[in-house]
Amino acid sequence: MKLFIQTLGCAMNERDSAHMIAELQEKKQYTLTDNAKDADLILINTCSVREKPEKKLFSEIGQFAKEKKPGAKIGICGCTASHLGEEIIKKAPSVDFVLGARNVSKITEVLERPKAVEVDIDYDDSTYVFASSQDMGIKAHLNISIGCDKKCSYCIVPFTRGKEISIPTDLLVNEAKKLVANGVKELLLLGQNVNHYGVRFSTPHKKTNFTELLATLSEIDGLYRIRFTSPHPLHMDDGFLEEFARNPKIAKGIHIPLQSGSSQILKMMKRGYDKQWYLDRIAKLKSLLPNVGIGTDIIVGFPTESEQDFEDTMEVLSIVEFDTLYSFVYSPRPHTSAYNYDKSMLVPQEMAKERLSRLQNLHKQILQKKAQKEIGSIYEVLIENHRDDEGQTWSEGRSSQNKLIKILGRKCSIGSIIQVKVTHNDGGGLYGEFVRELSLEQALQANVYIKCINGSD
Ligand code: 5AD
Ligand code: SF4
To answer: Name one Pfam family in it (predicted).
Structure first.
């Protein structure tokens, strides 16, 4: 039996797809195919954060229904499945089942139930132990919580993924140890709001928080790096920032969604912080770690956003000098409070798009300016990929700050930790020369050493 899976959206959806693949491989003996025409089961794992992908879903279903083998099943999973539920089967009778983002642990069960619709957002699979993924590399995702308790006024996620429940620490430690024993060197902790960890468990649990979870996971021998996405700026207290800076296993690249730089718009977005709070958290972080890599998400054209509001966002961009930017035009979503705003509050699409391109241009300029300073810097790269054929020899991986760095002319083994000196930057990425290979122990000490030579300690 062959499985084809198409995944849209965020890292959480990728993790959900990996869970479904592992369950289907282990319990139903499926193997993966990248050709939908060969598949016995076609899964579309959807995203509904913005309107466009959701709109495309029905034409995609039509296409798969035309191409598929006779008797092959089609299942729609993820956030759009949660959002539209039964409506999907009514509109597209070729669909065999619908499985919500909160219900992925039921994949092997719905498969056997014709026209099943499982979209209960109160369903609690926070203690469910998923089958292990069969093709682990050196990086793995680990869900630390499900759902989201925030009510950001633009966001459909609390509706599609339900209330927030943390996964018990001992389950996470067991899973992480299993992953590391299988060769994983870097963990990406996932949650809608990771630094809210510990607020609610579905079984009795000792009082804890995200900072403690990071400290506990970092004790696992053989683990080199921990990343996480996304923390909420509101819950970035000093204790968290200090642990982040101090702990050599925590990668020094962090994604901190801003959404808007205008305090007035942030208030309407119900983000719980203002421009000054955000800038203060960044200042604290940079004072502890001048070389930290920072990424963000920004929405432009939120209802009532004025030119001055937008200028506030541009100002935050100039002050923080983000390393990565994911930027979006506001898209009204049903079941959100901003959806009910009066039409007169909407920013015209053309104006929003024009602001988006101004924002992206400023980001490009900032990156160009920062790029020149990179030459000569020394980074530790965890090798993820390499090639040595047809006259091409290179290796590549990411630094602690999450920068992609390519080493030309050298094939380093996957999973090795290489100290690299940056020699040039072509705008799209950094290139560097091999300095030396480090053992895990040396690397964890060298982390501190590199901070010292770069003047941050
Ligand atoms: N419109 C545009 N962007 C959105 N995001 C979430 N909801 C919307 C929306 N309605 C963005 C936010 C979030 C990222 C995952 O998607 O920036 O951080
Ligand atoms: Fe959506 Fe806000 Fe929750 Fe993020 S924190 S998932 S933006 S409601």
So the answer is: Radical_SAM
Question: What is the best residue among 79, 270, 328 to mutate for testing ligand 1's pocket, by most ligand atoms within 8 Å of CB?
Answer: 328
> The tokens of 457 are what?
């300690």
Domain residue spans of the chain: 2-118, 139-373, 375-447
Protein residue closest via CA to atom 17 of ligand 1 = 297
366-398 per-position pLDDT tens digit: 998 888 888 999 999 999 999 998 889 999 999
Q: State in Å: Cα 453 to ligand 2 middle.
A: 38
- Domain 2-118 CATH assignment equals 3.40.50.300: no
Strands 225-229 and 392-398: unpaired
User: Ligand 2 within 6 A of 235 CB?
Assistant: no
Separation of alpha carbons 20 and 23, rounded Å: 5
* 8 Å CB contact between 104 and 124: no
User: How far, in Å, is the centroid of ligand 2 from the Cα of 158?
Assistant: 7
Residue indicated by tokens 């000093």: 238
Ligand 2 contact via 163 beta carbon (within 6 Å)? no
Summarised one tens digit per residue, pLDDT across range 4-62 is: 999 998 889 999 999 999 999 999 999 999 999 999 999 999 999 988 877 889 999 99
Whether 228 contacts 252, CB under 8 Å: no
DSSP 222: T
Ligand 1 geometric centre to CA of 50 (Å): 7
CA of 200 to the centre of ligand 2 (A): 17
CA dist 155 and 136 (Å) reads: 32
CATH 1.20.1740.10 fits 375-447, yes or no: no
Is the dihedral angle over the CA atoms 450, 297, 201, 84 positive or is it negative?
negative
Q: Ligand 2 pocket: which of 47, 50, 143, 192 to mutate (most atoms <8 Å of CB)?
A: 192
CATH of domain 139-373: 3.80.30.20
| CB of 214 shorter than 6 A to ligand 2 | no
Residue 178 phi/psi, 5-degree rounding, is -60, -45
